[in-house]
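Quick log. Single chain, no ligands specified.
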Amino acid sequence: MKHIQLGDWGQEFRTYTRLDRLCESFVRHRTLVDCWLWVLVLVALVLDAHTTTVGLERGLVESNPVMRVAFSTFGVSVIWGLKAAVAGLALGCWAVLPRDDRMLVPASLGLPWALAVLSNTGLLVAV
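-> predicted structure:
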């Protein structure tokens, strides 16, 4: 039976799959920029979910067809769980990525969600 070599990344992933090591990774590998980007993610997540919920309550229509189906099937509150799941998955990915690439994870979530907040706010002001 042959063993597949995963290289350094595979070893690092196996190391961080234990919860205590994952928590240690967050503390040891964070930078000031990472912290601010995660604050942006958290604020954008809450504001995007809130402005989406308010917009739907005021008669606006969700433009994302997948989310439209999710809202009609599970209700508007499903957005909170989905966004939390995406943020949790991103946080796990951030923990196992090499230090030089980590900043991309919160930036790729925070910036689009912040733009969605601006878009939602503009639509709400126009209503």
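Residues 7-126 form one domain.
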